[in-house]
Design a protein that fits this description.
This protein is mainly beta. It has one helix and 41 strands. A hairpin with a 7-residue loop joins strand 35 (503-508) and strand 36 (516-522).
């Protein structure tokens, strides 16, 4: 679907972009001085080239981004920054897969893009820059697109190949980058096209800390296939998006072309997420709903969106075990700072697990049931799976509830990779599972929404179905289970959750890599202890030993043992004990 373009006057574009031209034209060559870490400067030749005619302009999109190019040679000046001979540049090795691959690199600064703050990006061999997906999709599409339903910068998105552009066959070091204090240069040097040997492309993207982006095209030799790339930016599959060119429609890029993409008027949103007692809630997710921009709170429960287009928004904060928090009429003004506090009410997290060694036979279907005897109305449900398999793309996995409703979790994802290691399927995760990489460690959005179970009773038999759809490989299911956040009953919304049982109420995040919050409930005044053990039964740490009153409590474990030493990665058991009762749960520490 083509994105609707609006055009601004040339005078406005000239005014806005006068400051963007960091190297003034002074004939065919200029010298650009780049600072080194030691305070000296590296001098590089910078070439300029313009074209006759008016500049092409586009936008604004739904986030007020615009673009302007250098067709007339007087605005978005072509100022090529060459990295090939730069001793400080870092070149990426795509020897293993020069056709369709991706690599994560640090930016060295925070880059605002469609409201999200990012300190790293994903570079793909197919001319894309992504942010939290690692999808080197070769089949380009017009923007916005569901092929990569995530924030994306398409510098020259096409079915490219590192070997076929005439430089250094073998895929070694054809894509490189260099960090500067307030910008980064990413260069695709002499990449070619998959299936052709007569195409060669040399282009680069420059990302600035203030959100500006500059695309430059030093050489575009399309060959017999002709032009078919996508150039533009998008926030998500549903937009906003701003497209410069797609499959030879729109504006056709030329050698010597420069395009600026730049944001419009923006402000900032910051705030905090606390529980009803005022305790900070780290690792909570916060979303700007209209933009579908997601962030997380830090260890102190604070969050920030440093660059948000001016407008009025609604926001949602959520964390496992808590009711969602909502904010409406969040107004962002140009250059302004809007503060949004959230207060979330604890409801509890209940975990139900089935462990064993169930064979996943080749070209067969395996079903494993999990019986839940408690009765809770589901407010949120996640599914976690741990299995070994020698070729995970053979697998289609689904979960069926007691009422017969089935949700597809993953469908032949992961290519030739192995295993699902404590993978959590969560509607509120950031990355769709189809863009994940084996062993899928962490949380992923399932193929179909688990919210289909919301409002239903968790009590009854739950079934995990694993279908092996291709021959030659098999595996073993080690464990699976569900995490339930129950809906509140008819309590007064202002009343804190009460303890009905002596129980561990789960921990979040789980798995975790630095710290996790363990929740528990005590129905009456009791002396209790909360201890951690490794899989050998050895005590690792005592988190609490005290007499407590009836209520719901939380304790944070920072991943260290009783000596203050970082504990090793692996499975740990947490045990809550009193003179009359005990409860045990599992923690997964991943470093």
């Amino acid at each position: 679907m083509k994105f609707l373009r609006y055009f601004v006057t040339l005078a406005v574009a000239l005014s806005l972009l006068t400051s963007f031209c960091t190297v003034a034209s002074a004939g065919p060559k200029d010298v650009l001085k780049s600072p080194r870490a030691d305070g000296s400067y590296l001098e590089k030749e910078v070439r300029h080239r313009g074209h006759n005619g008016l500049d092409n302009q586009g936008g604004p999109d739904g986030y007020a981004y615009r673009f302007v190019d250098n067709q007339s040679g007087d605005t978005a000046t072509f100022s090529w920054v060459e990295l090939r001979r730069d001793e400080d540049a870092i070149w990426l090795d795509f020897t293993a897969n020069p056709d369709d691959d991706a690599a994560i690199i640090p930016l060295g600064f925070v880059f605002p893009f469609y409201g999200g703050p990012y300190d790293s990006v994903v570079i793909t061999t197919n001319g894309m820059i992504q942010f939290y997906t690692t999808s080197p999709e070769f089949f380009n599409d017009c923007l916005p697109t569901e092929i990569v339903p995530a924030p994306m910068i398409c510098v020259h998105w096409d079915d490219l190949h590192c070997d076929n552009g005439g430089y250094n066959p073998g895929g070694n070091m054809t894509i490189g980058y260099k960090q500067f204090p307030d910008h980064i240069v990413i260069e695709w040097d002499s990449v070619g096209r998959q299936g052709y040997t007569d195409a060669s492309f040399k282009f680069e993207a420059i990302l600035w800390a203030d959100g500006r982006m500059k695309f430059q095209y030093d050489r575009l030799v399309e060959g017999t296939a002709g032009f078919s790339a996508t150039i533009g930016i998008q926030a998500d599959a549903d937009g906003p998006a701003l497209e410069y060119s797609c499959d030879a429609t729109g504006h056709l890029p030329l050698s010597g072309l420069a395009i600026w993409f730049y944001p419009g008027d923006v402000g900032a949103i910051s705030g905090s997420v606390r529980d009803v007692q005022g305790t900070p809630l780290p690792y909570a997710r916060v979303r700007i709903n209209e933009l579908w921009v997601m962030g997380r709170t830090d260890a102190t429960g604070d969050f920030a969106f440093p660059s948000v287009a001016t407008g009025t928004y609604s926001m949602t904060a959520f964390l496992h075990g808590y009711m969602e928090g909502h904010a409406t009429n969040v107004v962002v003004t140009t250059g302004g700072q809007t503060t949004v506090p959230f207060s979330l009410r604890w409801t509890g997290v209940h975990s139900y697990t089935a462990s064993g060694n169930w064979p996943i036979a080749d070209l067969d279907t395996t079903t494993v049931q999990l019986q839940v005897n408690e009765s809770w109305i589901i407010n949120d449900l996640d599914v976690f799976v741990s299995l070994t398999h020698s070729y995970v793309a053979d697998l289609r996995i689904s979960v069926t509830g007691p009422g017969g409703q089935t949700v597809l979790l993953t469908n032949q994802n992961g290519g030739s990779g192995e295993d699902y290691e404590m993978t959590t399927f969560d509607d509120e995760a950031l990355i769709p599972v189809r863009f994940g990489q084996p062993p899928f460690n962490g949380s992923f959005i399932p193929e179909e929404p688990l919210s289909a179970f919301n409002g239903l009773d968790v009590q009854g038999a739950w079934t995990l179905t694993l279908e092996d759809l291709a021959g030659g490989d098999d595996g073993v299911l080690l464990e699976w289970g569900i995490l339930i956040t129950p809906a509140l009953d008819a309590l007064d919304p202002g009343t804190p959750a009460t303890a009905r049982e002596f129980a561990l109420l789960g921990n979040y995040p789980n798995p975790f890599n630095s710290r996790t919050i363990i929740r528990y409930s005590v129905p009456q005044t009791l002396p209790i202890s909360l201890r951690l053990y490794n899989v050998l039964g050895q005590e690792v740490a005592t988190l609490l030993q005290a007499r407590v009153e009836a209520g719901v409590y939380s304790v944070t474990w920072d991943g260290r043992d009783a000596r203050g030493v970082d504990a090793a990665s692996g499975l740990y058991l947490v045990r809550l004990e009193s003179p009359t009762a005990s409860a045990t749960g599992k923690l997964f520490l991943l470093r």
